[in-house]
Amino acid sequence: MPADALRTFAETIRAAATGGKRLRLRGGGTKDFYGQALEGEVLDTRSYAGVVAYDPTELVITVRGGTPLAEVERTLADKRQMLAFEPPHFGAATIGGAVAAGLSGPRRAAAGALRDFVLGVRIMDGRGEDLTFGGRVMKNVAGYDVSRVMAGALGTLGVILEVSLKVLPVPVAEATLKFEMPADRAIEAMNRWAGKPLPISATAYTDGDLGVRLSGAAAAVKAACETLGGQRVADAEATRFWTGTREQTDPFFGGDEPLWRLSVPSTTAPLAIEGRELIEWGGALRWLKSRAEVRTIRDAAARAGGHATLFRGGDKSAGVFHPLAPALAGIHKRLKAEFDPHGVLNRGRLYPEW
Length: 354
Known about the structure:
By secondary structure, this protein is of the alpha+beta class. It contains 10 helices and 17 strands. The chain is globular.
């Protein structure tokens, strides 16, 4: 029963706080590789699952945090709706874990990031208290920013009990085009096309090939195909490509080299770093497979006006996430102290200091 699960969560958290212990929040465990150290006894969130409310006419769904992400997507698909930010699964993910990780897929540059679709959350903080922020409709903005803070916090601020998300209709038509060109031309083309009224919903470039996905009304997609040219990719092949990019099953992501995730201005030239790049989000997201030194990679990202995250593999001793400026680090620490004063929840998952 949901009430029993909540009671167990509260008792476990309060006992940990009293006993000076730490808890590791875990849903499907599909993002265990992401972030710093995994510390503490596992608090499994999957017992608190299910759809709380779904109104297709309002484009809003509210679900419990332990609900499988695949189940949420199936529920939406039945009404021809979707999570527009295309969260990666990496396995049997839960919706709470998806929100906590804050990761978005190929459609992010066109539709927005996961945090942009969070309307409200219900969490249990490090005191075992049940707190609600935001609402279930776009008009309700009370606590809106607090709700968004939970996206990407990796469970360091609270257990995500419920989340209300804005959803969107599935596009009527989609087509994927392929272009052969060098990286600098691909970056220029993606930025040029972004300034035109084209229904581009995703871009991905690697090893001389640029993939462009078009989504929207059938007439708009057809006209865009004629305008851009390129080679039309068969629908089944296109689905495999975009799913492989989102789920990192594409051959690019194979091998044992450390995988870096660099966020840079979209017009940034190809990075002069040893390794291979896959460029998404119109040039703003660079996946880099490289054995270069941490400082070399982070300095290159900083010079471009961005930051670098060690997404998977490699040596985490230098920090997974880009070092924060002192003022921003102070905000993070104050948030942690407010929501989890005893340091119980996922301590050290974002930064070793908290």
